[in-house]
Amino acid sequence: MTYTEEWVTARARAAYEQGQASFTIRPERSALLVIDMQDEFVRPGWSPYWVPAATRMAPRLRRLIECCRDADIPVIWTIFDDTHLGLDRPHALRYLPHGDTGWRRPAPAAVWDEMGYHEDEVLIRKPSYGAFYDTPLDTILRNLGRDTVIVTGTLTNYCCGTTARQAYERGYRVVFGADVTATDDESRQEPELAVLRKGFALVLSAEETADRLSAADPASAAAGPKATAASGPA
Asked: 98, 120, 156, 198: which one has the fewest Cβ atoms less than 10 Å from its Cβ?
């Protein structure tokens, strides 16, 4: 068989649009990663690094967090903490213009209060984009017996996308939240989702994720219908 340019191009396009990953999301094998939903990115107007799209999607993400808590799925939070700049951060990041505004945090980095972080949940302060780089995340997940991660938060095409790729490279099944991730230029959202959909992750909405978790959980099915992550205003 001869593969024409039109055939291979159409095949690639279909994979970007439709995705290639297919697996069951089992609550007892899953963990929810909430990436960098912290003050300077999500608190409106508080810093020049505010991501308005992350603030808008925060209520939807909070509902997914509650769904995961109800299903006994660990919720693991990260904070992008650049106080270690020049120490344990990758050397290349020193030369990127992260400090071009001169803004400095008035206090240590913290999860935005509106996200409802529970103090008994794991909080990882990471030195770089990906949540696995120089952190205990991989050890925590393996100790919990979790081989599936649900990636949410901000920025889609930086910390979330890097975390998804790192998880994939470590053999995890990756679910990526299509509408519970956000970036600073919304035109960049779908191109990143397309790459992840084709090569790294099962890309689902919050409602689809909650539905699949419920369908895989016999206890939830026996208890009857319950609210999904998409219930209520977005």
From this structure: 120
